[in-house]
Amino acid sequence: MNARARSRRALLKTASALGPAAILGVGSLISSPVRAQTPLKWANLTPGFTTLLTDYMLARQLTKANGLALGKPTSYTAVSTYYNDFVAGNYDVCIGSWDTFASRYLAGVPLQYVCSVTTGNMINIVTRAQAVQKFQDLQGKTLAAPQSTGTYRMMRAIMQEIDGIDLEKVATVQNVDNPAASVTLVMANRADAGLTWEPNVSMGLERVPDMRVLYSAGVAFRRKLKLDLPYFGVAVRKEALARDPGLASRLNQAFQQSIQGITTQTEEAIKIAGAQSGTSPQVLKTAIDSRRLEFKHASMQTEEGRRSILVANEFLKRSGALPAVVDKEFFAS
């Protein structure tokens, strides 16, 4: 065999090992799927907006494109069970409120925070009671709220520091299992007000003509600190990261791409995930158009992303909603 033939044979062998993407010079994760690593489990909350993210990612094959071995997510209806199963290690990737992850991390749960995906504009107190015209009127009234959630603690802290009102001292708080139940009780006149988040807010506004937003956590926080209040984000178990050191970066990119798709092709995203969300397409569209459901990606691999959490963490620490400020190991950076 002459030198030219040997060289050609070696080139073909190398090209075969690298695969077609390397031969063509394709570097994009979308156009050239990364080989999936260890299988991962994830979950979503129904009814709720998290299905927009998970279903859009699967439909557009963003998981496969980013080398994420994620199949159909497990759906939960009870918020407490959703978080408890993540804490117990029953699944690897969780979409939830950043302060819930922070409180679990501070308590020793092995997790890291990858990115934020929405702002606190989602968190609202709604009412239909004529006696509750402003949030100060909650004195002596009944407030339905999912008390096991970080959302409840966040709202309580914001109202306490910004407006000097402690929800548990002015109102009778009635615990519910999920944010949809808060709205249901207000609709049935079994609670004067309800703490909930989108798309449940828009669902209530659509069904009951006299329902209205009484207080917005995101608006109050921005008014006080001139910053967006981070809200839902993505956390991953440390053991999953240990198995696959590049996992955090690929998860971050997949969620960034999902948010970009949802915000630029909203109607298409709603068609893909609307049926699974437990919410009508019109309600989801209303929630997004109103900017109460505001998708905004913030990577913890950037200083700006980490700062958004640390500022909010300091705020919640002062109010007693969180016992301490997370250290750098909280961030999957």
From TrEMBL:
InterPro entries: SsuA/THI5, TAT_signal. The keyword Signal applies. Keywords: Signal. It is found in: Periplasm. One of its GO terms (cellular component) is periplasmic space. Residues 88-269 form the SsuA/THI5-like domain. It comes from the Bacteria. The keyword Signal applies. Its main location: periplasm. Pfam families: NMT1 (PF09084). Belongs to the bacterial solute-binding protein SsuA/TauA family. This is Twin-arginine translocation pathway signal protein. It comes from Achromobacter aloeverae. The lineage of its organism: Bacteria, Pseudomonadati, Pseudomonadota, Betaproteobacteria, Burkholderiales.
